[in-house]
Amino acid sequence: MDFEYYRNDEGAPANSNRQSLLASGWRPFHRELDWEFVWQLLCHDRQEFTQKSFNLASNFAEILGRHNYTWWANLLSVVSDNTRYEVEKYWNYITPDPLSPDYRYKDILSTETPIVQFVSRNSIPIDYVLNRLQEITVLRVLDVLGCPHIITQYYLERDFYFPVEKFVNWERLDVLNTVYAYWSKNDVWLQINSFDRGRRQYTLLAKNLAPLVNKATHDLAIMLSGYQTRVGKLYSQFPIRSFPEDIQNFTDLVQQAILNQKQLAVLVHGEPGTGKTAWTQAVAKEILVPLGYVIFILDHDAIANFVPPTYLERICIIINEADNLAQNRATEVAQYNNKTEHILSLLDGTLYQSVIDDSGIHIQQQLVVLMTCNTTERLDPAMLRKGRVDLMCEFTQRFV
Description:
By secondary structure, this protein is of the alpha/beta class. The protein folds into three domains: 30-94, no CATH class; 107-214, no CATH class; 218-395, P-loop containing nucleotide triphosphate hydrolases (Rossmann fold, 3-Layer(aba) Sandwich), CATH 3.40.50.300. The chain is 34% helix and 20% strand. It is built from twelve helices and 14 strands. The chain has helices at 12-23, 35-44, 46-64, 71-78, 81-94, 126-145, 210-216, 245-260, 276-288, 300-303, 339-348, 350-353; strands spanning 27-28, 107-113, 150-155, 158-161, 178-183, 188-194, 200-206, 221-224, 229-232, 263-270, 294-298, 314-319, 366-373, 391-395. The protein has a seven-stranded antiparallel beta sheet, with helices on one face. Strands 9-8-11-12-13-10-14 form a seven-stranded mixed beta sheet, with helices on both faces. β11 (294-298), α10 (300-303) and β12 form a beta-alpha-beta unit. The longest helix is centred in the middle third of the chain and has 20 residues, at 126-145. InterPro entries: 26S_Proteasome_ATPase, ATPase_AAA_core, P-loop_NTPase. It comes from Brasilonema sennae CENA114.
């Protein structure tokens, strides 16, 4: 006769998961006695410490002093589940808790992986690209940090740890609940949450993440346009020394201004084929990237919805064909879009500094905007006012 119908399988999945956790390299975490911690309990929580100690001793005395059971039955009761529970509860009280993140840390950077792209014909996937950039940043920070000091996971009311000497990478780490990792040298915490279909959320917490983010985002470039969007490295076909002498002299002025100013806007104009776009890429490649700037190349579709990420300290925005974007608002064409206002607020800093979000990373950003146009006649006069565009240059010689 088959009695499977009456069998209780409620604990089977949990036990299976725990076995898979142990099989994947995780080990039970055992609390260690810290006499300094015990002394602190005696000094500051003496009444509670005394009461819990007497309660545990009373339980043992009651078990061992029972007369209606044989002596060996009383000894077996000492190692029963009920007694073990009381002992573990007391042990957890007199031993320090495992290390856990300090959620008071002000710098928090989080990402879900893998990033899912939602395709739309009406707009470029700017949110996807920015989320992809944040994902790359978090994963690069983890690569910079290397192997953590400790990796723990709490599952089925038990603490587990993963031997750091066996750690390979985060993708191969089995995550059933919430995983914590800590780098004592950098004072950085990582929290990993697991979701359905293999998705995970990585959250970095630290007092100061900016140096790690700057190191992780070195040489990154992002292209946002209606034709293609990508995150990678910047390529420049022509070096600065290949440009005419007057352009090289202007480049020296731009470089000095980049070093001296927190925010800089540069506008170069000239007929097609004079090397304006090639010059912006050369400046970004040879001057800005070595200084730690993250390069954003935006077209007319992207500029209308772009807000600089707050966790990046140095940002360079390249806007090609600015005369088609920041058009004179007195013309009929410019009245049908708000791209001119968006560029003006971007140059003023009011676009992203007027409202500050309390969460995440907030640092004093350095912004460089490089713009090209064929003619300045179609630009809105407000854009050329003093304080918005710091340096201008006309490219007159045929270059490309």
